Amino acid sequence: MSEAGTPGDGPTRSRPATVGSVRRLFGGRPNELRRPADRTRRRWNIAFVLSFLIALSFGVVVTTAVWDAESRTAREAARHRHRIEATTVGAVERAVSNRSGGTSRTVAPAVWEYPAAHQHSATISVPFGTPAGRTVTIWVDDTGREAQKPSSEAQRALAAAAAGAGSFTLLALATGAVVRLRLLRVEARSRAQWEDEWEAVEPRWSGRLKREQESGDD
């Protein structure tokens, strides 16, 4: 008496699960009513979701890269920036910035020494109402000339976030526009196909063809 084979006996031939999953993802479940245009729409919608995720990943990469670059620049600048005290020697004046926007700032003539025994004088930004003879903190470079202070962590984070958000937005908008145009073309072809098929089916479905044939027999 022979034993009945079990489902686990012997190798079974089936398509890899991964391939089947991918096909179901892009093509959906088998459906006789699904038209090629429906499958195309599904693929483009999935492509848009995937492109959104890619754009998000790209934005994160850009954010990280800008943060690293800004941090290196800040560390390098900090090596050549020095915080010292300057002394005002004149009255405070209001000056207009040359940058776009025309923002104004209060300035006053001041003197300082850096390196030791090297005296410098220039007009520096000071708080409004600063009297002559008041000490003001400034940043200078290795030669003693006034310089911009190293960027703060918050400024670097803001620059990195802005760069990442901008990259993500541009890429997402570009892919969204491409997908939108493709879907419009698919919709136009689908409507044209529906009209052609309706022209062929409508006379029989509505009975108009039969009535025309009967009236032609008279």
The averaged pLDDT comes out at 79
H/E order of the elements? HHEEEEEHH
- Radius of gyration computed on alpha carbons: 37 Å
Principal-axis shape equals rod-shaped
Distance between the termini: 79 Å
Largest sheet: 5 strands, antiparallel
Strand content: 15-25%
What percent of the residues sit in helical stretches (DSSP H or I)?
A: 40-55%
Task: Identify low-pLDDT runs.
Answer: 1-15
**How many separate helices?**
4
Overall structural class, as computed from helix and strand content, comes to alpha+beta
Tell me the number of strands.
Answer: 5
Task: Characterise this structure.
- InterPro entries: MT1774/Rv1733c-like.
- Keywords: Membrane, Transmembrane, Transmembrane helix.
- This protein is of the alpha+beta class and 218 residues long.
- Helix content is 55%, strand content 16%.
- It is built from 4 helices and 5 strands; from the N terminus they run H-H-E-E-E-E-E-H-H.
- Strands 1, 2, 3, 4 and 5 form a 5-stranded antiparallel sheet that branches.
- A hairpin with a 5-residue loop joins strand 3 and strand 4.
- The N terminus is likely disordered.
